[in-house]
Structures are given as C-alpha cells and as structure tokens.
Amino acid sequence: MKLVKLCLLPALVVLGLNLISCEKKEPMGVLGEEKDKAKIIFVNATPNSATQPAAAQREIAIFPVYNNVQFNTFPIKFPWSNGYKAFAPGSMTMRFDTAQSQSNNPPGAAAKVGELTFPTEADKYYSVYSVGTAQKPEFLLLSDDLALPTPGKAKVRIMNYSPDAGPLDLYITAGLPSGPSTLATNIAYKGVKEFFDIDPGIYTIEFRVAGTNTVVKNKTNVIIDKNSCYSIWARGFRTVPSPGNTFGGYAFDISYHANRWSNPL
Fold it and tell me: pTM for this one?
C-alpha cells in the first residue's frame, strides 16, 4: 500500500498543476501557446426537428472534419463544442458529417450534411457554428476577437441561433448594482452582436421577444470574469416540433462559454 501511494501521489499532483496552469491562461479548449497557428472551435447549435416520435428522441450529433482529418473520437452533440484546435494557417475546408444518416432509424452510416471553406491566419481564432435544424443544417463562420478587454472589464458576444424564436432582446436582470441592463436588442435569427466590454459579475440574464417584456428564457448564476471573453447564444426551439415527443434538450435555452478566460484570483 505504501508503494502504491508513493507512485500515484506525484502523478496526481503533476496532473493537477497542469490543469490549473491551463485554466489560468488559455482560451476554451485548453490550448498551449500554439504560436503561428490558426485556432478553430466547432459548436453544435443544431437541434433535431423530427416529428415522428422515435426519430424525435434521437440525439443527432455532428463530426467536424478538418482538411479531410477527423480529430474527434466522438461526434459533437447539441449543444456542445469540441474546444479550439490548432492548424497551420491557410485554406481550411471543414466537412460536416452526421453521426447517423437522416433517413435511417435505427442509426445507419454517417452522412455528409455540409462543407465550409475559408482562409485562416496565424494567431487568429475562429468559431464555426452548426445552426438550423438537423434536418436542414447550416454552417456559420465567426472571427473571434480575443484581444483583452479594457482592464478590469470582460467582453461578451451575443448570438441568436434559435430556429423559431424570432428576433430577441437580451437583458441582465439581476447582479448589477445599478439594476437591469440591456445587452442586445432585436437580434434576428443568425444575428450576431460582436464582442463588447461589460462589467464582470455573477448575473441573471434573460432573452425576451424583441421589443416586449415576454420572457422566453432566463439563466441564473452566469459568471462573467474580468479580463475574459465570452460568447452567449440562444439555442433550441421556442415551440418544439412534436410536443410530448421531442427530446427535452432541444427546447429553447441559453448557452455561454469562455472563449478566453483569465484567472480572476
């Protein structure tokens, strides 16, 4: 027993130190410095709109393939991402395959559902979002401005990727000493409000139908740390296509992640 403890404890300590050092300074995806590389993150914001009960329960995931190389052992399920990955700068062609064919139930062979080609630059960050529905996906490219915000501030970017919610407003409704604040107004489907500075804090945020007080969804305990960059987006169906049958995770919700996180301590 003593020998086991002596062998395992140093390994655990080293692992813990490695994880902590990555969390302190790296953008989402736990990358190293990766100088002179382009970094790309894929996010699956594509819900399943099937109306048949058995098909509506399926979690249709997507494999991103980078210049004909598949880096992921498992496909990316809605609404998750695969973290930033680093590539030599230049032309990038991303192919997107479903983990199962749209027409087969039970699951069949993977099927290509889209492709996106775009130029990349060294030391630049990019986000690729799968939007629309699993039955009719679209793929959007965003350039990620991860320069540090004004000292003591944070930066956020707002997107609307809900296929049926219509234009949305986003508010901070709790957590600001000065009271409620408007983050974005009239964000259309596939619309983006690019990164802008806000005060750090722990907030309650809510999406409303644009120009009204009708709340579509709120989210509590949204942690926005200083010197960090975040993406916040609406996802899923405001009205699910097959009530009582559609997998519950496809309902309207709010996602957010840190594209760049700096340890606030």
Answer: 0.84
Longest dimension (CA), the chain: 67
Nearest of 69, 21, 63, 29 to residue 46 by alpha carbon: 63
Q: pLDDT tier at 38 (50, 70, 90 boundaries)?
A: very high
- d(CA 262, CA 265) in angstroms, rounded, equals 9
User: At 63, which amino acid appears?
Assistant: F
Residue 154 structural domain: 149-265
Q: Do 84 and 179 reside in the same domain of the chain? A: no
The DSSP bridge pattern shows strands 168-174 and 181-187 to be: antiparallel
Per-residue pLDDT tens digits for 127-150:
999 999 998 999 999 999 999 999
* Tokens linked to 159: 């997107």
Residue 242 in this model has a pLDDT that exceeds 90: no
3-class secondary structure, 35 = coil
- Domain assignment present for 27: no
Task: Check: CB of residue 134 under 8 Å from CB of residue 48.
Answer: yes
State how beta strands 38-44 and 85-87 pair. antiparallel
Domain boundary among 80, 110, 144: 144
Residue 28 lies in a domain: no
Cα–Cα separations (whole angstroms), residue 119 to 124, 141, 206? 11, 11, 35
Closest CA to 44 of 15, 79, 87, 17: 79
**Residue 216 is part of a domain; what is its CATH number?**
2.60.40.1120
Beta bridge partners of 44: 130
Pure H helices in 170-219: none
